[in-house]
């Protein structure tokens, strides 16, 4: 009997904690938006965060974009060749990158490269009571620390995703045209005929912007909310990476079903 | 790191990002070559549109000159009404024939325009009078079998 009531109590605590955290996250997001004006007026704070989240992620984005494109080129050609349509390689590479792979993989890389760093930084600031000290000095930590990191991530993400897609197309071209010998004219012209600016590219950019907001929000929230101990910070970082990955994949499904449903 | 170096790197980052976006829209999406110019809308009614889809190309002599914008079913005549836009650079006579064709054996379907001989040109909102429906394989086979059956006794 006591075992049963204990189990029920655990379940109740789990749900209550979940709801409480959700409410706290929503309140935190509202505060974040409220203080964004204050923080964006001191633009150099956000510029600094764009440097740390965006510029320092360039290398990994460029290299992985190139390799993903090259693998797509190899595998896509193998499969398309069986149906005698190796010329459509450009279409395959460009559509899969601009619609799905670009935003999603860039988002996952961004979450693990930049999101985890942001969480660690804010978490450590909390653990060493720097955030409290700021509060004592009448400096709002959300406006001074959290909002610039949030906007830095939101601004960086679409650029990184576009760069990932562009590098992927370049990688596909490198393998398809230069190495395998697909006709260059067919590669580009079929791609240009199939890829629509508004439908494919703009939707990809919208996707990456949504992922940017999700990843940046999760990263700053987990950092701000973490237990202020060494273990708590490490747990918060894990939660950031796992939560961002899940959020990106789930959001991607929802966005795809809205954007591309019932169309060719 | 000093403020100026930081600003420089962020500037470089933004330029690279915008360059990637430009590459995607111009080279991959062919925004420059797409008909973002002035267009006029024309409609045509078909008995059967086969597999024609919205955004399918409109071609004349094999050149893409427009896009299908809207397909709907008309309950008055039980036919399909297809609306499409054509670039204003390409005026067509009023008695142009619209046909639904297929590119390649398994390719996508597109709308083909064959110009007639009228001196008056199509304007925005006009409807094409002469259309030719998509070829439906089952009907084709049915017709073939019917003809074969009709031939048989004469042998």
Oligomer: heterodimer
Total number of helices of chain B: 2
The percentage of residues in β strands of chain B lies in 25-35%
State the helical fraction of chain B: 25-40%
Give the class of chain A from helix and strand content and strand pairing.
mainly alpha
C-alpha geometry of chain A: elongated
**Distance between the ends of chain A:** 58 Å
Poorly predicted segments of chain A: none
| Structural domain tally of chain B | 2
Structural class label of chain B = alpha/beta
What is the radius of gyration of chain A? 22 Å
Overview of the molecule:
The complex is a heterodimer of chains A (264) and B (155). Chain A has 264 residues and is mostly helical. In chain A, 88% of the residues lie in helices and 0% in strands. Chain A contains 9 helices and no strands. Chain A has helices spanning 2-41, 43-53, 58-82, 89-127, 130-136, 141-180, 184-194, 197-225, 230-259. The longest helix of chain A has 40 residues, at 2-41. Chain A starts with a helix and ends in a 5-residue tail after the last helix. The model of chain A has no long low-confidence stretch (mean pLDDT 91). By secondary structure, chain B is an alpha/beta fold. Chain B has 2 domains: 1-34; 39-142, no CATH class. Chain B has 2 helices and 8 strands; from the N terminus they run αββββββββα. An 8-stranded mixed beta sheet of chain B has the order 7-1-4-3-2-6-5-8, with no helix packed on it. In chain B, strand 3 (63-74) and strand 4 form a beta hairpin. The longest helix of chain B is centred in the N-terminal third of the chain and has 26 residues, at 3-28. Classes of the chains: A mainly alpha (264), B alpha/beta (155). Chain A binds chain B through residues 44, 47-48, 50-51, 54-55, 58, 94, 98, 156, 158-160, 162-163, 165-167, 169, 188, 191-193, 195-197, 199-201, 205, 263-264, and chain B through 1, 3, 6-7, 9-10, 12-14, 16-21, 23-25, 27-31, 33-34, 53-55, 57, 64, 108.
